[in-house]
Amino acid sequence: MSTAPNRRHALVALAATIVALGLSVSILLMPWFTFVAAPVSGAPAITGFSEAGVREVAEQVRYFVTHRDAPPLPAIIDGQEGFDDSSVTHLVDVRKVILAARWITVLATILLGVVAAEALSRGELRGVSGGLRTAGWSMAGLVVLLGILGTVDFDSFFSAFHGVFFKAGTWTFPADAMIIRIFPEPFWTLAAGSWAVLTFVIAAALVVAGVVGKRVSKDMPGN
């Protein structure tokens, strides 16, 4: 039996997983999420800013970490200390991770498209459909695992997550730092929950696409 379907399966599973994870994160990095989540996280009471003020500052940070040409973050906000050098340095590190993730997602999307197009041209969709199902189920399992870890000990999970991407000591700040007050813990809890829901939806879509692809592939010669 040819190993081509197995190779396609592996490539599609890897590429689809990367694309799906990148998509779920990208959705949360859109302006709508900070607009909704920042005020309801308790930031207005913590900072003393109005809801509009919290949204404005949160949007400045969101734009800063998603655009290389973003303007500097304010050092003073309404008479309060804003973003100091250590906060800005961390947010620059965050931006580097996000921009790198974007490029990885783009490359994975191209790979997925090339493999799928090649398989379609040959009428051999078995590896593609199998890879999509594997990606979907793997993502669903990842969400469940991370959900359990986060529920058992959110602080440890949060620390471990940051430790993967950032050097120790570069992402911890005093409780009165603006970066902490504008994005308090409830914000991140809401972000994690929203990411889980989005990822489950995307995972389900991948599984459905894989099932449909499997049925279609049975009607193709050579499958």
Describe this protein with a few key phrases:
two-stranded antiparallel sheet, 223 residues, 2% strand, single chain, mainly alpha
Helix content: over 70%
| Individual helix count | 9
On the 0 to 100 scale, the average pLDDT is 89
Task: Compute the separation of the termini in Å.
Answer: 11 Å
Uncertain residue segments: none
Structural domains: how many: 1
- Count of beta strands: 2
Determine the strand fraction and express it as a percent band.
Answer: under 5%
Q: Strand order across the biggest sheet?
A: 1-2
Main sheet makeup: 2 strands, antiparallel
Shape: elongated
Radius of gyration, in angstroms, nearest whole number: 21 Å
Structural category is: mainly alpha
Order of helices and strands: HHHHEEHHHHH
Give the gist of this structure:
The chain is an all-alpha fold and 223 residues long. The chain contains 9 helices and 2 strands.
Word description of this protein:
It is a single chain. The relative contact order is 0.18. The chain has a two-stranded antiparallel sheet. The longest helix has 38 residues, at 85-122. By secondary structure, it is mostly helical. The chain contains nine helices and two strands, in the order H-H-H-H-E-E-H-H-H-H-H. Helix 6 (126-152) packs across helix 7. Helices cover 77% and strands 2% of the residues.
